[in-house]
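Chain A, query sequence.
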Amino acid sequence: MSVWVPASEVPGGSTSGDGCAEGDETEMEVAMTPAEGAPLGEETLGDAAKQACDDSKEGKSGKKGQSTVAMRNFYAIATAYLIFTMVDGALRMIVLFQANEVGFSTFDIALMFVLYEFFGVFTNLFGGVLGSRKGLKVTLIIGLLCQCVSIILLTPFPETDSWDVFGSKAGKVVYIMFAQSFAGIAKDMVKISGKSVTKLVTAEGEDVRLYKFVARVTGYKNQLKGIGFLMGAFFLQITGFLAGLLILLALVLVLLPSTVKFVDAGVGKSKSKKINWAKVFRKGKNFNILCVARMFLFASRDVWFEVPLPVFLTNILGWDDIAAGGFLAGWIILYGGVQSNTAPLALKPVGCHPPIGPHLLPWAAVLTVVTAAMSAAMTATNQFDSDAALTAIIVAGLFLYALVFAVNSSIHSYLVVRYSDGDKVAQSVGFYYCANAGGRLVGTLLGGVLYTYWDEGAGDFDRSARVKSFTACLWASAILAGISAVVSVFLKDGAGAGTRKDVEMVVATSNGAATTATTSGRPLAVDNEGTQATPRASSV
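Chain A, predicted structure.
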Protein backbone atom coordinates (compact mmCIF):
# COMPACT_ATOMS: atom_id res chain seq x y z
CA MET A 1 0.00 0.00 0.00
CA SER A 2 1.06 3.65 -0.08
CA VAL A 3 0.44 6.66 2.10
CA TRP A 4 1.19 10.39 2.01
CA VAL A 5 3.20 11.56 5.01
CA PRO A 6 5.44 14.55 5.83
CA ALA A 7 9.05 13.70 4.89
CA SER A 8 10.37 14.72 8.30
CA GLU A 9 8.02 12.27 10.03
CA VAL A 10 9.31 9.25 8.11
CA PRO A 11 11.91 7.29 10.10
CA GLY A 12 15.18 7.45 8.27
CA GLY A 13 13.64 9.76 5.75
CA SER A 14 15.86 12.76 6.45
CA THR A 15 18.66 13.33 4.01
CA SER A 16 20.66 16.36 3.09
CA GLY A 17 21.37 18.49 0.08
CA ASP A 18 18.85 16.88 -2.23
CA GLY A 19 15.66 18.79 -1.66
CA CYS A 20 14.53 16.46 1.12
CA ALA A 21 16.65 17.89 3.89
CA GLU A 22 16.01 17.26 7.53
CA GLY A 23 13.02 19.28 8.68
CA ASP A 24 11.51 19.45 5.19
CA GLU A 25 7.74 19.27 5.68
CA THR A 26 7.02 18.37 2.07
CA GLU A 27 4.55 15.49 1.90
CA MET A 28 5.60 12.43 -0.11
CA GLU A 29 3.90 9.27 -1.23
CA VAL A 30 5.62 6.35 0.47
CA ALA A 31 5.24 2.89 -1.04
CA MET A 32 5.17 0.24 1.65
CA THR A 33 5.73 -3.19 0.14
CA PRO A 34 7.01 -5.66 2.74
CA ALA A 35 7.29 -9.36 2.03
CA GLU A 36 4.02 -11.16 2.47
CA GLY A 37 3.35 -11.69 6.15
CA ALA A 38 6.42 -9.69 7.24
CA PRO A 39 6.04 -6.80 9.68
CA LEU A 40 6.55 -3.29 8.39
CA GLY A 41 9.57 -1.97 10.25
CA GLU A 42 11.32 1.37 10.42
CA GLU A 43 14.12 0.31 8.09
CA THR A 44 11.69 -0.66 5.33
CA LEU A 45 9.74 2.58 5.73
CA GLY A 46 12.89 4.67 5.76
CA ASP A 47 14.28 3.10 2.61
CA ALA A 48 10.95 3.60 0.90
CA ALA A 49 10.97 7.25 1.93
CA LYS A 50 14.42 7.80 0.47
CA GLN A 51 13.42 6.17 -2.79
CA ALA A 52 10.22 8.23 -2.96
CA CYS A 53 12.22 11.41 -2.36
CA ASP A 54 14.64 10.59 -5.18
CA ASP A 55 11.82 9.73 -7.54
CA SER A 56 10.01 13.00 -6.78
CA LYS A 57 12.81 15.42 -7.71
CA GLU A 58 11.77 15.70 -11.34
CA GLY A 59 8.14 16.01 -10.30
CA LYS A 60 8.98 18.94 -8.03
CA SER A 61 10.67 20.85 -10.83
CA GLY A 62 7.65 20.17 -13.02
CA LYS A 63 5.30 21.50 -10.34
CA LYS A 64 7.48 24.59 -9.99
CA GLY A 65 7.10 25.23 -13.71
CA GLN A 66 3.35 24.81 -13.45
CA SER A 67 3.30 27.27 -10.55
CA THR A 68 5.21 29.83 -12.63
CA VAL A 69 2.66 29.51 -15.45
CA ALA A 70 -0.23 29.87 -12.99
CA MET A 71 1.26 33.05 -11.51
CA ARG A 72 1.90 34.47 -14.98
CA ASN A 73 -1.78 34.01 -15.76
CA PHE A 74 -2.67 35.56 -12.42
CA TYR A 75 -0.57 38.68 -12.95
CA ALA A 76 -1.69 39.13 -16.57
CA ILE A 77 -5.39 38.84 -15.72
CA ALA A 78 -5.13 40.86 -12.50
CA THR A 79 -3.27 43.69 -14.28
CA ALA A 80 -5.89 43.88 -17.03
CA TYR A 81 -8.67 43.79 -14.43
CA LEU A 82 -7.16 46.59 -12.37
CA ILE A 83 -6.42 48.93 -15.28
CA PHE A 84 -9.82 48.23 -16.80
CA THR A 85 -11.48 49.15 -13.51
CA MET A 86 -9.73 52.52 -13.57
CA VAL A 87 -11.03 53.14 -17.11
CA ASP A 88 -14.54 52.05 -16.13
CA GLY A 89 -14.60 54.45 -13.16
CA ALA A 90 -13.40 57.33 -15.35
CA LEU A 91 -16.03 56.61 -18.02
CA ARG A 92 -18.79 56.58 -15.41
CA MET A 93 -17.77 60.00 -14.07
CA ILE A 94 -17.54 61.52 -17.54
CA VAL A 95 -21.04 60.34 -18.44
CA LEU A 96 -22.55 61.28 -15.07
CA PHE A 97 -21.12 64.81 -14.80
CA GLN A 98 -21.75 65.55 -18.48
CA ALA A 99 -25.39 64.49 -18.10
CA ASN A 100 -25.76 66.65 -14.99
CA GLU A 101 -24.30 69.68 -16.79
CA VAL A 102 -26.65 69.18 -19.75
CA GLY A 103 -29.60 69.35 -17.36
CA PHE A 104 -30.83 65.80 -16.91
CA SER A 105 -32.60 65.07 -13.62
CA THR A 106 -31.15 62.67 -11.08
CA PHE A 107 -33.76 60.10 -12.08
CA ASP A 108 -32.80 60.52 -15.77
CA ILE A 109 -29.14 59.95 -14.89
CA ALA A 110 -30.06 56.87 -12.86
CA LEU A 111 -31.97 55.54 -15.89
CA MET A 112 -28.85 55.97 -18.04
CA PHE A 113 -27.12 53.36 -15.88
CA VAL A 114 -30.06 50.94 -15.67
CA LEU A 115 -28.92 48.81 -18.60
CA TYR A 116 -25.35 49.02 -17.29
CA GLU A 117 -26.52 47.26 -14.13
CA PHE A 118 -29.28 45.18 -15.78
CA PHE A 119 -26.96 43.57 -18.29
CA GLY A 120 -24.53 42.99 -15.46
CA VAL A 121 -27.04 40.58 -13.92
CA PHE A 122 -27.20 38.37 -17.00
CA THR A 123 -23.56 38.86 -17.95
CA ASN A 124 -22.46 37.48 -14.60
CA LEU A 125 -24.73 34.47 -14.94
CA PHE A 126 -23.93 33.52 -18.53
CA GLY A 127 -20.41 34.93 -18.44
CA GLY A 128 -19.59 32.65 -15.52
CA VAL A 129 -20.79 29.65 -17.52
CA LEU A 130 -18.82 30.89 -20.54
CA GLY A 131 -15.70 31.23 -18.40
CA SER A 132 -16.06 27.65 -17.18
CA ARG A 133 -16.61 26.36 -20.73
CA LYS A 134 -14.14 28.46 -22.73
CA GLY A 135 -11.73 29.80 -20.11
CA LEU A 136 -11.08 33.16 -18.49
CA LYS A 137 -9.10 34.44 -21.47
CA VAL A 138 -12.29 34.49 -23.55
CA THR A 139 -14.34 36.38 -20.96
CA LEU A 140 -11.52 38.89 -20.47
CA ILE A 141 -11.13 39.63 -24.18
CA ILE A 142 -14.91 39.94 -24.68
CA GLY A 143 -15.04 42.40 -21.77
CA LEU A 144 -12.27 44.59 -23.16
CA LEU A 145 -13.86 44.67 -26.62
CA CYS A 146 -17.28 45.60 -25.21
CA GLN A 147 -15.72 48.51 -23.34
CA CYS A 148 -14.22 49.75 -26.60
CA VAL A 149 -17.69 49.61 -28.21
CA SER A 150 -19.22 51.58 -25.33
CA ILE A 151 -16.64 54.36 -25.58
CA ILE A 152 -16.85 54.56 -29.37
CA LEU A 153 -20.63 54.93 -29.24
CA LEU A 154 -20.22 58.10 -27.15
CA THR A 155 -17.46 59.78 -29.19
CA PRO A 156 -19.71 61.28 -31.96
CA PHE A 157 -21.20 63.68 -29.39
CA PRO A 158 -18.36 65.85 -28.07
CA GLU A 159 -20.51 68.93 -27.39
CA THR A 160 -23.61 69.25 -25.23
CA ASP A 161 -25.73 70.53 -28.13
CA SER A 162 -24.65 67.62 -30.39
CA TRP A 163 -27.04 65.41 -28.42
CA ASP A 164 -29.93 67.38 -29.93
CA VAL A 165 -29.85 65.01 -32.91
CA PHE A 166 -31.95 62.62 -30.79
CA GLY A 167 -34.64 65.25 -30.37
CA SER A 168 -36.43 64.58 -27.10
CA LYS A 169 -34.81 64.06 -23.73
CA ALA A 170 -36.15 60.52 -23.71
CA GLY A 171 -34.30 59.77 -26.95
CA LYS A 172 -31.03 61.00 -25.46
CA VAL A 173 -31.52 58.90 -22.32
CA VAL A 174 -32.26 55.77 -24.34
CA TYR A 175 -29.13 56.19 -26.48
CA ILE A 176 -26.88 56.68 -23.46
CA MET A 177 -28.52 53.64 -21.84
CA PHE A 178 -27.70 51.65 -24.96
CA ALA A 179 -24.05 52.79 -24.97
CA GLN A 180 -23.70 52.09 -21.25
CA SER A 181 -25.13 48.58 -21.65
CA PHE A 182 -21.87 47.56 -23.37
CA ALA A 183 -19.90 49.04 -20.49
CA GLY A 184 -21.99 46.96 -18.07
CA ILE A 185 -21.29 43.77 -20.02
CA ALA A 186 -17.60 44.70 -20.17
CA LYS A 187 -17.27 45.35 -16.45
CA ASP A 188 -18.71 42.04 -15.38
CA MET A 189 -16.96 39.95 -18.02
CA VAL A 190 -13.63 41.35 -16.85
CA LYS A 191 -14.63 41.01 -13.18
CA ILE A 192 -15.38 37.30 -13.62
CA SER A 193 -11.84 36.78 -14.88
CA GLY A 194 -10.21 38.95 -12.22
CA LYS A 195 -12.07 37.40 -9.29
CA SER A 196 -11.90 33.78 -10.47
CA VAL A 197 -8.16 33.62 -11.08
CA THR A 198 -7.43 34.06 -7.34
CA LYS A 199 -8.94 30.62 -6.67
CA LEU A 200 -6.89 29.01 -9.41
CA VAL A 201 -3.51 29.98 -7.93
CA THR A 202 -4.24 28.69 -4.43
CA ALA A 203 -4.51 25.09 -3.31
CA GLU A 204 -7.50 23.72 -1.45
CA GLY A 205 -7.19 24.43 2.26
CA GLU A 206 -4.89 27.45 1.83
CA ASP A 207 -7.53 29.77 3.26
CA VAL A 208 -5.17 32.43 4.61
CA ARG A 209 -3.32 32.67 1.28
CA LEU A 210 -6.60 32.73 -0.65
CA TYR A 211 -7.94 35.49 1.58
CA LYS A 212 -4.77 37.51 1.00
CA PHE A 213 -5.08 37.21 -2.79
CA VAL A 214 -8.78 38.09 -2.82
CA ALA A 215 -8.37 41.03 -0.42
CA ARG A 216 -5.45 42.53 -2.32
CA VAL A 217 -6.94 42.19 -5.78
CA THR A 218 -10.30 43.55 -4.62
CA GLY A 219 -8.71 46.34 -2.62
CA TYR A 220 -6.36 47.44 -5.40
CA LYS A 221 -9.29 47.29 -7.81
CA ASN A 222 -11.29 49.74 -5.73
CA GLN A 223 -8.31 52.04 -5.24
CA LEU A 224 -7.82 52.22 -9.00
CA LYS A 225 -11.55 52.72 -9.47
CA GLY A 226 -11.20 55.76 -7.21
CA ILE A 227 -8.33 57.04 -9.31
CA GLY A 228 -10.55 56.49 -12.33
CA PHE A 229 -13.26 58.68 -10.78
CA LEU A 230 -10.76 61.49 -10.40
CA MET A 231 -9.42 60.94 -13.93
CA GLY A 232 -12.92 61.15 -15.40
CA ALA A 233 -13.75 64.39 -13.60
CA PHE A 234 -10.36 65.85 -14.58
CA PHE A 235 -10.70 64.86 -18.24
CA LEU A 236 -14.18 66.31 -18.51
CA GLN A 237 -13.24 69.65 -16.95
CA ILE A 238 -9.71 70.08 -18.36
CA THR A 239 -9.32 68.12 -21.60
CA GLY A 240 -12.98 67.93 -22.59
CA PHE A 241 -15.46 65.15 -23.24
CA LEU A 242 -14.04 63.80 -26.53
CA ALA A 243 -10.37 63.90 -25.56
CA GLY A 244 -11.15 62.13 -22.30
CA LEU A 245 -12.98 59.34 -24.11
CA LEU A 246 -10.14 58.84 -26.59
CA ILE A 247 -7.59 58.52 -23.77
CA LEU A 248 -9.74 55.88 -22.10
CA LEU A 249 -10.14 54.02 -25.40
CA ALA A 250 -6.34 53.95 -25.84
CA LEU A 251 -5.87 52.49 -22.36
CA VAL A 252 -8.26 49.64 -23.10
CA LEU A 253 -6.69 48.90 -26.48
CA VAL A 254 -3.25 48.61 -24.86
CA LEU A 255 -4.52 45.75 -22.69
CA LEU A 256 -5.64 43.54 -25.57
CA PRO A 257 -2.20 42.44 -26.95
CA SER A 258 -0.84 41.53 -23.52
CA THR A 259 -3.99 39.55 -22.72
CA VAL A 260 -3.74 37.59 -25.97
CA LYS A 261 -0.04 36.88 -25.44
CA PHE A 262 0.28 36.13 -21.72
CA VAL A 263 -3.02 34.49 -20.69
CA ASP A 264 -3.31 30.78 -21.47
CA ALA A 265 -6.41 29.66 -23.34
CA GLY A 266 -7.20 26.92 -20.83
CA VAL A 267 -6.98 28.92 -17.61
CA GLY A 268 -10.21 28.65 -15.63
CA LYS A 269 -11.71 26.11 -18.03
CA SER A 270 -13.73 23.39 -16.31
CA LYS A 271 -12.71 19.78 -16.86
CA SER A 272 -16.37 18.94 -17.28
CA LYS A 273 -17.62 19.89 -20.74
CA LYS A 274 -21.28 19.58 -19.83
CA ILE A 275 -23.06 22.42 -18.07
CA ASN A 276 -25.87 21.29 -15.81
CA TRP A 277 -28.15 24.33 -15.55
CA ALA A 278 -29.86 22.92 -12.50
CA LYS A 279 -26.48 22.93 -10.72
CA VAL A 280 -25.75 26.45 -11.92
CA PHE A 281 -28.61 27.63 -9.72
CA ARG A 282 -28.00 25.09 -6.96
CA LYS A 283 -24.83 26.20 -5.20
CA GLY A 284 -25.50 25.06 -1.66
CA LYS A 285 -27.21 26.77 1.25
CA ASN A 286 -24.31 28.96 2.42
CA PHE A 287 -23.51 30.13 -1.11
CA ASN A 288 -27.12 31.10 -1.84
CA ILE A 289 -27.51 32.91 1.49
CA LEU A 290 -24.30 34.81 0.80
CA CYS A 291 -25.67 35.89 -2.60
CA VAL A 292 -28.82 37.33 -1.02
CA ALA A 293 -26.79 39.12 1.66
CA ARG A 294 -24.50 40.55 -1.04
CA MET A 295 -27.45 41.84 -3.06
CA PHE A 296 -28.81 43.85 -0.13
CA LEU A 297 -25.33 45.01 0.92
CA PHE A 298 -24.59 46.64 -2.44
CA ALA A 299 -28.09 47.97 -2.83
CA SER A 300 -27.49 49.74 0.50
CA ARG A 301 -24.39 51.44 -0.88
CA ASP A 302 -25.55 52.38 -4.37
CA VAL A 303 -28.87 53.84 -3.21
CA TRP A 304 -26.93 56.95 -2.12
CA PHE A 305 -23.48 56.66 -3.71
CA GLU A 306 -23.81 56.02 -7.43
CA VAL A 307 -25.97 58.99 -8.49
CA PRO A 308 -27.43 61.01 -5.55
CA LEU A 309 -24.10 61.83 -3.85
CA PRO A 310 -22.23 63.36 -6.84
CA VAL A 311 -25.35 65.30 -7.88
CA PHE A 312 -25.85 66.57 -4.31
CA LEU A 313 -22.21 67.67 -4.03
CA THR A 314 -22.31 69.65 -7.28
CA ASN A 315 -25.85 71.04 -7.25
CA ILE A 316 -26.43 71.73 -3.54
CA LEU A 317 -22.98 72.16 -1.97
CA GLY A 318 -21.61 73.89 -5.08
CA TRP A 319 -18.54 71.71 -5.67
CA ASP A 320 -17.06 71.65 -9.18
CA ASP A 321 -16.56 68.40 -11.10
CA ILE A 322 -12.95 67.90 -10.01
CA ALA A 323 -13.75 68.53 -6.33
CA ALA A 324 -16.73 66.16 -6.41
CA GLY A 325 -14.81 63.57 -8.43
CA GLY A 326 -11.86 63.94 -6.07
CA PHE A 327 -14.05 63.30 -3.03
CA LEU A 328 -15.59 60.21 -4.61
CA ALA A 329 -12.10 59.07 -5.60
CA GLY A 330 -10.79 59.59 -2.08
CA TRP A 331 -13.70 57.62 -0.64
CA ILE A 332 -13.16 54.69 -3.01
CA ILE A 333 -9.37 54.75 -2.49
CA LEU A 334 -9.85 54.70 1.29
CA TYR A 335 -12.37 51.90 0.95
CA GLY A 336 -10.01 49.93 -1.30
CA GLY A 337 -7.04 50.52 1.00
CA VAL A 338 -8.93 49.20 4.00
CA GLN A 339 -10.17 46.28 1.92
CA SER A 340 -6.59 45.32 1.02
CA ASN A 341 -5.58 45.38 4.68
CA THR A 342 -8.73 44.17 6.40
CA ALA A 343 -6.92 41.27 8.07
CA PRO A 344 -4.38 43.27 10.14
CA LEU A 345 -6.67 46.29 10.64
CA ALA A 346 -9.92 44.59 11.64
CA LEU A 347 -10.12 40.81 11.46
CA LYS A 348 -7.02 39.65 13.33
CA PRO A 349 -7.51 42.02 16.28
CA VAL A 350 -10.97 40.54 16.94
CA GLY A 351 -9.96 36.95 16.22
CA CYS A 352 -11.80 36.25 12.98
CA HIS A 353 -9.08 35.62 10.41
CA PRO A 354 -9.58 33.98 8.02
CA PRO A 355 -13.27 34.84 8.33
CA ILE A 356 -16.19 32.41 8.25
CA GLY A 357 -19.85 33.03 7.45
CA PRO A 358 -21.09 33.91 10.96
CA HIS A 359 -18.52 36.72 11.16
CA LEU A 360 -20.64 38.73 8.71
CA LEU A 361 -23.46 39.42 11.13
CA PRO A 362 -21.69 41.78 13.58
CA TRP A 363 -20.02 43.74 10.78
CA ALA A 364 -23.30 44.14 8.85
CA ALA A 365 -24.99 45.25 12.08
CA VAL A 366 -22.32 47.90 12.68
CA LEU A 367 -22.78 49.17 9.11
CA THR A 368 -26.52 49.49 9.74
CA VAL A 369 -25.94 51.52 12.91
CA VAL A 370 -23.40 53.83 11.22
CA THR A 371 -25.76 54.57 8.31
CA ALA A 372 -28.75 55.17 10.60
CA ALA A 373 -26.70 57.56 12.77
CA MET A 374 -25.58 59.50 9.69
CA SER A 375 -29.20 59.72 8.48
CA ALA A 376 -30.37 61.06 11.84
CA ALA A 377 -27.58 63.65 11.86
CA MET A 378 -28.55 64.80 8.35
CA THR A 379 -32.18 65.14 9.44
CA ALA A 380 -31.22 67.30 12.43
CA THR A 381 -28.75 69.46 10.50
CA ASN A 382 -31.27 70.39 7.82
CA GLN A 383 -33.06 72.51 10.44
CA PHE A 384 -30.04 74.87 10.69
CA ASP A 385 -29.49 75.57 6.98
CA SER A 386 -25.70 75.14 7.29
CA ASP A 387 -23.62 73.92 4.35
CA ALA A 388 -20.60 73.56 6.64
CA ALA A 389 -22.51 71.22 8.95
CA LEU A 390 -23.79 69.17 6.02
CA THR A 391 -20.30 68.90 4.60
CA ALA A 392 -18.88 67.81 7.96
CA ILE A 393 -21.52 65.09 8.39
CA ILE A 394 -21.06 63.79 4.85
CA VAL A 395 -17.24 63.72 5.05
CA ALA A 396 -17.00 62.26 8.57
CA GLY A 397 -19.96 59.91 8.16
CA LEU A 398 -18.87 58.52 4.84
CA PHE A 399 -15.31 58.11 6.12
CA LEU A 400 -16.59 55.83 8.89
CA TYR A 401 -18.99 54.14 6.47
CA ALA A 402 -16.08 53.34 4.11
CA LEU A 403 -14.14 51.61 6.89
CA VAL A 404 -17.02 49.35 7.94
CA PHE A 405 -18.31 48.70 4.43
CA ALA A 406 -14.80 47.66 3.32
CA VAL A 407 -14.66 44.97 6.00
CA ASN A 408 -18.10 43.67 5.01
CA SER A 409 -17.22 43.61 1.32
CA SER A 410 -13.84 41.98 1.95
CA ILE A 411 -15.41 39.13 3.92
CA HIS A 412 -18.03 38.68 1.19
CA SER A 413 -15.41 38.59 -1.59
CA TYR A 414 -13.37 35.98 0.26
CA LEU A 415 -16.29 33.74 1.22
CA VAL A 416 -17.66 33.50 -2.31
CA VAL A 417 -14.34 32.20 -3.61
CA ARG A 418 -13.97 29.94 -0.58
CA TYR A 419 -17.44 28.45 -1.10
CA SER A 420 -16.79 27.92 -4.83
CA ASP A 421 -15.92 24.65 -6.49
CA GLY A 422 -12.36 25.06 -7.79
CA ASP A 423 -13.22 23.29 -11.06
CA LYS A 424 -16.11 25.68 -11.77
CA VAL A 425 -14.97 28.78 -9.94
CA ALA A 426 -15.81 31.15 -12.83
CA GLN A 427 -19.35 29.79 -12.91
CA SER A 428 -19.74 30.23 -9.15
CA VAL A 429 -18.23 33.71 -9.08
CA GLY A 430 -20.41 34.74 -12.02
CA PHE A 431 -23.56 33.56 -10.26
CA TYR A 432 -22.55 35.42 -7.10
CA TYR A 433 -21.87 38.69 -8.91
CA CYS A 434 -25.19 38.26 -10.70
CA ALA A 435 -26.71 38.89 -7.26
CA ASN A 436 -24.23 41.74 -6.76
CA ALA A 437 -25.34 43.39 -10.01
CA GLY A 438 -28.97 42.90 -9.03
CA GLY A 439 -28.32 44.79 -5.80
CA ARG A 440 -26.58 47.59 -7.68
CA LEU A 441 -29.49 47.82 -10.11
CA VAL A 442 -32.04 48.09 -7.29
CA GLY A 443 -29.88 50.61 -5.42
CA THR A 444 -29.26 52.80 -8.48
CA LEU A 445 -32.94 52.94 -9.47
CA LEU A 446 -34.19 53.42 -5.91
CA GLY A 447 -31.65 56.19 -5.33
CA GLY A 448 -32.76 58.02 -8.48
CA VAL A 449 -36.42 57.76 -7.50
CA LEU A 450 -35.92 58.82 -3.87
CA TYR A 451 -33.60 61.72 -4.64
CA THR A 452 -35.88 63.10 -7.37
CA TYR A 453 -39.35 62.44 -5.96
CA TRP A 454 -39.14 62.05 -2.16
CA ASP A 455 -39.50 65.81 -1.84
CA GLU A 456 -39.71 67.41 -5.27
CA GLY A 457 -39.69 70.97 -3.93
CA ALA A 458 -38.77 73.54 -6.55
CA GLY A 459 -36.47 71.20 -8.51
CA ASP A 460 -32.93 69.84 -8.44
CA PHE A 461 -31.51 73.00 -6.82
CA ASP A 462 -34.03 73.33 -3.99
CA ARG A 463 -31.68 72.93 -1.03
CA SER A 464 -34.16 71.89 1.66
CA ALA A 465 -35.97 69.42 -0.60
CA ARG A 466 -32.74 67.84 -1.85
CA VAL A 467 -31.33 67.47 1.67
CA LYS A 468 -34.51 65.66 2.69
CA SER A 469 -34.31 63.50 -0.42
CA PHE A 470 -30.64 62.64 0.13
CA THR A 471 -31.43 61.81 3.76
CA ALA A 472 -34.19 59.49 2.53
CA CYS A 473 -31.57 57.69 0.43
CA LEU A 474 -29.45 57.22 3.57
CA TRP A 475 -32.40 55.86 5.56
CA ALA A 476 -33.09 53.42 2.73
CA SER A 477 -29.41 52.42 2.90
CA ALA A 478 -29.70 51.68 6.62
CA ILE A 479 -32.76 49.50 6.04
CA LEU A 480 -31.10 47.55 3.22
CA ALA A 481 -27.93 47.03 5.31
CA GLY A 482 -30.13 45.78 8.14
CA ILE A 483 -31.75 43.23 5.83
CA SER A 484 -28.27 42.07 4.76
CA ALA A 485 -27.39 41.60 8.43
CA VAL A 486 -30.54 39.56 9.09
CA VAL A 487 -29.85 37.33 6.08
CA SER A 488 -26.28 36.75 7.35
CA VAL A 489 -27.69 35.11 10.48
CA PHE A 490 -28.44 31.98 8.44
CA LEU A 491 -24.80 31.36 7.39
CA LYS A 492 -23.68 28.26 9.32
CA ASP A 493 -20.02 27.50 8.65
CA GLY A 494 -19.30 26.34 12.17
CA ALA A 495 -16.51 27.65 14.35
CA GLY A 496 -13.04 27.04 13.04
CA ALA A 497 -14.02 26.30 9.47
CA GLY A 498 -11.47 27.14 6.88
CA THR A 499 -8.25 26.21 8.68
CA ARG A 500 -7.19 22.97 10.26
CA LYS A 501 -4.09 22.38 12.34
CA ASP A 502 -4.64 18.69 13.16
CA VAL A 503 -5.94 16.27 10.56
CA GLU A 504 -6.42 12.56 10.30
CA MET A 505 -4.09 10.35 8.32
CA VAL A 506 -6.23 7.60 6.86
CA VAL A 507 -4.50 4.49 5.54
CA ALA A 508 -6.62 1.95 3.71
CA THR A 509 -5.44 -1.60 3.16
CA SER A 510 -6.31 -3.94 0.35
CA ASN A 511 -8.90 -5.74 2.45
CA GLY A 512 -10.76 -2.53 3.15
CA ALA A 513 -9.56 -2.03 6.71
CA ALA A 514 -8.36 1.38 7.74
CA THR A 515 -6.20 2.92 10.42
CA THR A 516 -6.04 6.56 11.41
CA ALA A 517 -3.49 8.82 13.02
CA THR A 518 -3.48 12.51 13.77
CA THR A 519 -0.67 14.61 12.31
CA SER A 520 -0.08 18.11 11.02
CA GLY A 521 -0.62 18.98 7.38
CA ARG A 522 -3.44 18.66 4.88
CA PRO A 523 -6.45 16.42 5.34
CA LEU A 524 -6.04 13.07 3.62
CA ALA A 525 -8.58 10.93 1.79
CA VAL A 526 -8.60 7.26 1.05
CA ASP A 527 -8.60 5.85 -2.47
CA ASN A 528 -11.28 3.20 -2.15
CA GLU A 529 -10.15 1.40 -5.27
CA GLY A 530 -7.03 -0.04 -3.66
CA THR A 531 -4.35 0.75 -1.14
CA GLN A 532 -3.41 4.38 -1.62
CA ALA A 533 -4.13 7.35 0.61
CA THR A 534 -4.22 10.67 -1.21
CA PRO A 535 -4.52 14.32 -0.14
CA ARG A 536 -8.07 15.46 0.54
CA ALA A 537 -9.10 19.12 0.29
CA SER A 538 -10.40 20.80 3.41
CA SER A 539 -14.14 21.02 3.58
CA VAL A 540 -15.36 24.51 2.83
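The mean pLDDT is 75. The first strand starts at residue 2 and ends at 6.
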